TrEMBL record:
SUPFAM superfamilies: RuvA domain 2-like. This is Competence protein. It comes from Alteromonas gracilis. The keyword Signal applies. Pfam families: HHH_3. The lineage of its organism: Bacteria, Pseudomonadati, Pseudomonadota, Gammaproteobacteria, Alteromonadales. Residues 51-70, 81-100 form the Helix-hairpin-helix DNA-binding motif class domain.
Amino acid sequence: MKKLISGLLVLSALAIQAPTVHAQGMSEEGNNASETAPIQQRIDLNSATIEQLVTLPGVGQSKAKAIVKYREEVGPFLEVAQLTQVKGIGEKMLSKIEGYVLVK
C-alpha cells in the first residue's frame, strides 16, 4: 500500500509539473515567433534615424536608408502597412517588423 501511495504521489507531482514545463516551452517559442516591443518602445517610422531603423529585425543599412528616402520624397507614413511601398520591403518583411514600429 505504501508503494501505491508513493507512486501516486510521484505521478501527481509529475502531472502538476508537466503543464508548467509545457507552458514554459510554449512561452519561449512564442517569444521567438511573435516577439513585439511594447508600444512606448516602438520606433516611430516618421522620426526614426537610420541607426534606429537598423535595429529592426531584417533591416540593414540599405533598407533603413530606403525608408528614410521614401519618407523624405513621399512624406510621412500614414500607417505601418505603407512600408511595403518602400523598395525592398514586402509583406514578409513587414510581418517581421510591424510589431516594432508605429506611426505617430
